[in-house]
Amino acid sequence: MALPAAVLHDLERIVGKGQVIADPLDLRIFERDASITGALPDAIVLPATHDEAQQVVKLAARHGLPVVPRGAGTGLSGGAVTLHGGIALQLSRMRRVIKIDPEEKTALVQPGVVNSDLQHAASHHGLFYAPDPSSQKACTIGGNVAENSGGPHCLYYGVTTNHVLGVRAIFADGSSAWLGGDSLHQPGYDLLGVLVGSEGTLAVITEVKLRLVSIPEHIVTLMAAFPTIETASHAVSDVIGHGIVPAALEMMDQVTIGAVEAHYKAGYPTEAGAVLLVEMDGLRESCTELTGTVRSLLEQNEATGLREAADAAERELLWAGRKGAIGALGRIRPNYYLHDGVVPRSRLPGVLRSVSEIGEHYQLPVANVFHAGDGNLHPNILFDLRDKGVLEQVEEAGEEMLRAVVEAGGTLSGEHGIGIEKNSFMPWIYSPDDLAAMRQVKEVFDSAGLLNPGKIFPDPDREPRLLARAGLCAEARWW
Amino acid sequence: MAVDIRDPKTFQGPDAPSDDDLATCVHCGLCLNACPTFRVTGLETESPRGRIYLMTQWQRGELPYSEDLARHIDLCLGCRTCEAVCPSGVPYGRIIEHGRAELERIRRPNPKSMVVKQALRQLLGHPRRLRLAGGVTRLAQRLRLTGIVGPGRQLPSLAKAWRPPPGNVAPAIGERRYRVAFLNGCVMPIFYPHAHDASVRLLQLAGCEVWFPPGQRCCGALHAHNGDLEGARELRGHNAAAFGLESFDYLVVNSAGCGSHLKDFYANLGARVRDLSEFLLEAGLPPPEQPVNVRVTYQDACHLAHAQRIRKQPRELLQALPGIELVEMENPDICCGSAGIYNAVQPEMSQRILAEKLDDLLSRNPQVVVTGNPGCQMQIEAGLRERGRGDVRVQHLAELLVAAYPKVS
């Protein structure tokens, strides 16, 4: 629905000419993120400052327009999709690292700062920002906070919420406040904790204060090949069972290894059934000792071709492969449907078996690449949209996989968020009372339901299946 | 209405991007932050993912052709930074060249595109006409006439044009280890004759007999990048014949854009093409004879770093020079905004990108900026002059390397 010219004019007055996009052709480009569905926004608005963003939200509230914050559009659950139209508040112009305080080890950043740009800025002070989602070269801090993103190194260091000290928030009515402060612990209700991971449904964030960590004295990155996913999974259990929490513990299956190796040439053995990446960091002595223990545990589980990164460049290459894995799967099929269920570690081998059986049943290739250390699966169902009728199969397979996860005592999402891909499954893990309590929180922050509407909560008016929502985006029209 | 996407309705030209190429994009977004036009605008409409999405919908009959659509394709630099970071292996360079070819086929000719096409066809492909134009420009520069018009200020101060040696062969210095062919190129002999002299001498020092095939012409890279694939094919035909006359081990190219095009577009020659830095590092230069005491920063030419993935070689060659101090920019491998003729056809965006490059570059306080492509050299030189920093020299890698080998008279 096109916005009235007067509204567009007012928006332009706030953010400046050229910073409001309402051309139907241009809007097409913003209908999707990195997940598989989309919906057209009515306008894209690009504020350059907190004040501009605040005025836009106020104006939207006055006109009853939905507002959906958007960073780089790399989200994997449809978080940035404007399901009910309205304004996509594109924060990519707010990409300044405002301040790094090396003594306090904090960073104050705008939401459009790209995760790896922050890493780069922090590295000049011997510091780093621990949460490192695989899309870190493109994804923004605002999105990381909204989805409470994880990453390989979150096993040891904790996810985004463990690193956010404060946020400057704009609420649905256009009011604004700083939540949190200079330390991780604030008295009273933890409103900051409520906001982090709220998927843009409670507030728009315009500044974030983050905790930084010292770059460890010593880092060891190990790559190990295993004959099967099972043996690799047992190795993971053994490492953790020994009370060892590595900085990162990641797994890739054979399908993934092949795709990744084609681009990154990281030296992953393509004949292996699975590859584990294990990273230890800390003081040199303790690291070396730990590495010895981990090596022997891996070897006891049939690990072969153990390789230790010789230098920073080799370590970076090993990680580049892991972090580019999802994109690399495009070499196998042009589309993917990715879930990120979490299971208790001991159930990993069983659930992975189910995942592979489901893939075989639907004759769809499945690639597994995941945070093995914390049981966070990432089964990628690979397909080609151009194959007629394939999407029903993909959806059914995906749903079955998630069921297997939940039946094993797991949960729907580890780090990608619920968005519009998993909201209809929320009743599997929450009772009606649980969901009602969460809705009450939403009402307190946004009684009119204007901030990122249609996300997280199951929508009784909508069919659960993505396919049934065909028409949401252009690609849907091709099915 | 359902559209059978295997039977594209709108991409009907023989050079349109293929559906299979377009389908390699999984829409993950990892390319966004690598794209210079996205970085300065923050707009996904000016990003690789956005452009591919538009072309895909255009190709599948979901979007009609429009001037708006063309504008987003036109604004692409063609720097291929996205291609180097894309894990899915999207052949973006090919997609954009073919997308532009399709645009040229469809859109109504406008004066600007006509001028560009004719300039490329009538001038670049003809060494004699180019030399003549160069001579006229040189004269105009001496009479101080070129400063009057904007584009004139972009040009470097011209010296006498480079010509291949008599007999079209330069002998190896010392033992002959290779016989290499040399791409004379179109603008290089006129704009940067010293870079050619230096390149040839370095090749000789590395034990090469250098052959300059007579009858060779412009490689056609600029034609292809601007959607004139027909013009590019014609030049390829000429050059395939010229380079086929005698045998050689490698075809050495000292301009990034040409090297990249030759590797990608010339099926029979491509495998033997080497960038100068790539070849010199492999073949080995004699030990430097004197120090080169300068503080330099290296600007990655896009068609070296991203299209040919050559980053280490020029740096290693530089660092082998005694006395040199190499300081890296924050983003040495982001485009400078030159991008072939982009700075002429998209001056506004080009200047925005250049401004960021100059800030980055000057913050390192170099005496010399080294690069491996004439377009980058010209763009950065003009930008520095405009900022009153003409004291910072811009040189081709070869010019700096050759300074370590003084000529014995």
Give a quick summary of the entry.
The complex is a heterodimer of chains A (479) and B (409). Chain A is of the alpha+beta class and 479 residues long.
Task: Tell me about this structure.
The complex is a heterodimer of chains A (479) and B (409). Chain A is of the alpha+beta class. In chain A, strand 5 and strand 6 form a beta hairpin. In chain A, helix 13 packs antiparallel against helix 14. The radius of gyration of chain A is 22 Å and the shape is globular. Among the domains of chain B are: 88 residues, Alpha-helical ferredoxin (Fumarate Reductase Iron-sulfur Protein, Chain B, domain 2, Orthogonal Bundle), CATH 1.10.1060; 108 residues. In chain B, helix 19 crosses helix 20. Chain B is 47% helix and 8% strand. By secondary structure, chain B is α/β, with parallel strands linked by helices. Chain B contains 21 helices and 9 strands. A 5-stranded mixed sheet of chain B has the order 1-3-2-4-5. Chains A and B meet through helix 2, helix 9 and helix 12 of A and helix 3 of B.
What keyword list fits this structure?
heterodimer; A: Uridine Diphospho-n-acetylenolpyruvylglucosamine Reductase, domain 3; Vanillyl-alcohol Oxidase, Chain A, domain 3; seven-stranded antiparallel β-sheet; five-stranded antiparallel β-sheet; B: about 400 residues; alpha/beta; five-stranded mixed β-sheet; globular; disordered N terminus
Q: Summarize the amount of helix of chain B as a percent range.
A: 40-55%
Tally the helices of chain B: what do you get?
21
- Strands of the widest sheet of chain B, in order across it, are 1-3-2-4-5
- Can you give the mean pLDDT of chain A? 92
Count of distinct strands of chain B: 9
Q: Which two chains share the most extensive interface?
A: A-B, 47 and 39 residues
User: What level of helicity do the residues of chain A show?
Assistant: 25-40%
If you average the pLDDT of chain B, what whole number results?
Answer: 91
Question: How would you sum up the global shape of chain B?
Answer: globular
The CATH class of the domain at 217-417 in chain A turns out to be Alpha Beta
